[in-house]
Design goal:
- It is globular, with a radius of gyration of 29 Å.
- It has 2 domains: 236 residues, Ribonuclease H-like superfamily/Ribonuclease H (Nucleotidyltransferase, domain 5, 2-Layer Sandwich), CATH 3.30.420; 166 residues, no CATH class.
- The strands form 3 sheets. Strands 1-4-3-2-5-6 form a 6-stranded mixed β-sheet, with helices on both faces. Strands 9-11-10 form a 3-stranded antiparallel β-sheet, with helices on one face. A two-stranded antiparallel sheet has the order 7-8.
- The chain is built from 14 helices and 11 strands.
- By secondary structure, it is an alpha/beta fold.
- The longest helix is centred in the C-terminal third of the chain and has 29 residues.
- Bound molecules: zinc ion.
- The site of zinc ion has 6 residues, from loops.
- GO terms for molecular function: nucleic acid binding.
Length: 486
């Protein structure tokens, strides 16, 4: 933050830019001073950005093989990766690429932030160089989504380091969060016409009223300020990110270490703040469910197995897998159902689940699909995998009474203390089979025995009668109380 004096001085400077300077220099100076003031205004208005817990790693010539192997395994486990890069300025030349930051979202409470120091790589014939290449090869795999504030094109400047190719970048699954954020803001914050007697609360947050040009992309700093109400320090934007941030690279004195620590925090916070914005916007989840729903309509030819996602309330009986890295307060759980789908074999062996069909066709499509199609296929695969998890242990109950609703079935199973993850149906000819996903199988035979007697025609009739009775008795109870009260 600037001192009062510095702030006043900067404002004065901005108002008195020397007219005798070339126009380009005038504009550059104006831009610089405006940025300084904007930085100060945000710093005095919002508390500093605080990241969620993470562990950091450096990839450079000093990185041990075992560390690289661990990072390759970690990127294999991670399905969502946030990417950012840093460059350095050289006078009268284009910016030079210097650093790639990656945040691996893992099913643990910690994420990994990895700094790839491209100006300090091992020699090309070293084993570790091949391991770094393998790390990127894994990163660009089909089953991962790379989230980036801007375009993935930003990575092409780094091709010259020999770690990955243009083709790999082009074929990656990536999402431009900057574009998505703009769409989100324009959708959710249209211009409000202020009415008479309007209070602070009704202040307009549309782009124009916030001083953001609707033609311009959002800066990460502004997004963090207006959505998270935090200040993301951007004073290091153009710094010497090529100096070697890892303290293992050379002997450093205290002030050199401090300087590097600040730059490391700065570089990490770019990824970490994108992550918090994604969580705040519930974007991981949104992306998956929306594209899955649309792929249901358009991608039928890829697999003849179709499914629907139905929102249900979170107090329902579903297990939420650990990979749902969204805060529990904003969690929406989806129940996966397969109405009128013909399964060739819905016996209780999990390996016969149709996901295998989908997986085996994947490589064939890999080269031919557009990025969007691959994203859809990816999301579909994710949902199928999730489904596979829910139905890892299952009981099939053939020929149930068709009148039972999903809600009723779940309620009945709960009453019988059967721990259910999800339920699903399959129909063949005019019979309906119920497939029950179980949380655990220690009492499988007991559950099977219970379920064998449930959901018959007689059961439905009995169930309906019980329901009628319980409703009328509670009604009676209520009127009795009212009577007493008066
Ligand atoms: Zn407005």
């Amino acid at each position: 933050m600037l001192s009062e004096n510095e702030y006043r001085k900067t404002k004065q400077q901005l108002e008195n830019i020397p007219r005798d300077l070339p126009t380009k220099q005038q504009n550059n100076l104006k831009k610089l001073l405006k940025k300084k003031l904007h930085e100060h205004e945000l710093a005095s208005k919002y508390p500093p950005f605080q990241p969620l817990p993470y562990a950091q790693f450096f990839i450079n010539y000093a990185t041990h093989e075992l560390t690289l192997l661990h990072l390759i395994e970690s990127v294999q486990c991670s399905k969502k990766i946030i990417l950012d890069t840093e460059s350095i300025t050289i006078p009268h030349q284009p910016n030079e690429p210097a650093l790639i930051q990656l945040q691996l979202i893992l099913p643990t409470s910690y994420s990994y932030v990895i700094f790839v120091e491209v100006c300090h790589l091992p020699r090309e014939h070293d084993t570790t160089f091949d391991l770094i290449k393998l790390f990127f090869h894994t990163l660009f795999q089909f089953d991962k989504i790379i989230y980036i504030w801007g375009e993935i094109k930003e990575l092409t400047k780094f091709i010259k380091f020999g770690l990955f190719s243009n083709e790999q970048i082009r074929l990656s699954n990536n999402i431009n969060c900057q574009d998505e954020f703009k769409k989100y803001w324009q959708r959710n914050y249209p211009h409000k016409i202020s009415s008479y007697g309007s209070t602070e609360d009704s202040q307009c947050n549309c782009e124009s009223c916030l001083g953001i040009n609707p033609q311009d992309p959002w800066s990460l700093q502004n997004a963090v300020a207006h959505k998270l109400h935090l200040y993301l320090d951007k004073r290091f934007t153009i710094s010497q990110f090529d100096i070697g941030l890892d303290s293992q690279l050379k002997h450093l004195n205290d002030s050199e270490i401090k300087h590097r620590e600040r730059m490391i925090h700065y570089a990490a916070n770019d990824c970490l703040s994108i992550y918090q914005l994604i969580l705040e916007l519930n974007f991981f989840h949104h992306e998956q469910s929306v594209t899955s729903l649309s792929s249901h309509k358009s991608n039928k030819n890829i697999s003849n197995y179709s499914f629907q996602l139905l929102p249900i309330s979170s107090n329902d009986d579903l297990i939420v897998p650990n990979e749902y890295d969204i805060p529990s307060t904003s969690r929406t759980v989806y129940l996966i159902e397969t109405p009128t789908v013909i399964l060739d074999n819905h016996s209780s062996t999990p390996s016969q689940f149709p996901t295998t069909t989908n997986t085996s066709t994947k490589p064939k499509y890999k080269k031919e699909l557009s990025a969007e199609e691959r994203k859809k296929l990816h999301n579909k695969t994710c949902t199928l995998k999730q489904r596979k998890r829910y139905f890892r242990f299952q009981i099939t109950r053939e020929d149930i009474d068709k009148r039972f609703t999903t809600k009723q079935i779940k309620k009945i199973l709960k009453q019988h203390n059967i721990p259910v993850t999800a339920v699903s149906f399959s129909s063949r000819t005019n019979k309906k089979a119920l497939i029950i996903g179980l949380k655990e199988i220690t009492k499988l035979s007991i559950y099977e025995n219970i379920v064998a007697d449930l959901f018959t025609k007689q059961h439905y009739e009995q169930f309906r009668n019980d329901k009628y009775k319980s409703r009328s008795s509670s009604h009676h109870h209520r009127s009795h109380l009212n009577h007493y009260h008066f």
